Amino acid sequence: MSSIDSSACPCGAAATYDACCGALHRGSPARSAEALMRSRYAAYVRKDADYILQSWHPRTRPKVMSLDEDLLTWTGLTVHEHRVTGKNRATVEFSASYRGADGVPATLHEKSRFLREGNAWLYLDGEQR
Ligand SMILES: [Zn+2]
Questions:
Q1: Residue 24 above 90 pLDDT?
Q2: Please, which pLDDT band fits residue 3 given cuts at 50, 70 and 90?
Q3: Is residue 64 part of a domain?
Q4: pTM of the model
Q5: Which of 2, 42, 44, 58 could form a disulfide with 10 if both were Cys (CB 3.0 to 4.6 A apart)?
Q6: From ligand 1's centre to the CA of 58, what distance in Å?
Q7: Average pLDDT over residues 11-29
Q8: Domain containing residue 85: CATH number
Q9: Is residue 3 part of a domain?
């Protein structure tokens, strides 16, 4: 858990995993909804279901989640727009590319909604485009 990971962050930012989403995965609060969204994508890449659940708003959070059987391989993230829509609300529109179990490349295009509770941004829900 404390091993140093100085490889490029899977979220695509020009930073190492440790300095970018790794810091959030270790418990630092996200400074923006976009940062939280990037860290959730990186958690999918790393199959860190605990972080996905932790960063999910209690109102919409699934009770259990496992990525052990997940056969998707996430291959890239593009953030199209980060919009602050209120004091504690924001949306992030993004495309995440992946290969399915069959190896065929595909893209998830989603506009996600986030709420801030205290100093923590949380994922509320998303609408596929
Ligand atoms: Zn990152």
A1: yes
A2: low
A3: yes
A4: 0.93
A5: 42
A6: 24
A7: 95
A8: 3.10.450.50
A9: no
> 101: CA distance to ligand 1 center in Å?
25
Residue 87, class by beta-carbon neighbours within 10 Å (0-12 exposed, 13-18 middle, 19+ buried)?
A: exposed
Domain of residue 34, residue span: 21-128
Query: What's the confidence (pLDDT) of residue 104?
Result: 94
Task: Report CA(42)–ligand 1 centroid distance (Å).
Answer: 6
pLDDT digits (tens, 9 = 90+) for 25-59: 999 999 999 999 999 999 999 999 999 999 999 99
100 CA from centroid of ligand 1 (Å): 22
Tokens 């279901």 locate to 49
Is residue 111 included in any domain, yes or no? yes
d(CA 72, CA 96): 11
Give the Å distance between the CA of 16 and the centre of ligand 1: 7
* 18, 25, 36, 109: CA torsion to nearest 10: 90
Q: 43 C-alpha to center of ligand 1: Å? A: 9
Q: Long-range pairs for 104-107 at CB < 8 Å and ≥24 separation?
A: 105/75
Rounded to the nearest angstrom, the distance between the alpha carbon of 57 and the centre of ligand 1 is 20
Report the number of distinct structural domains present in the chain. Answer: 1
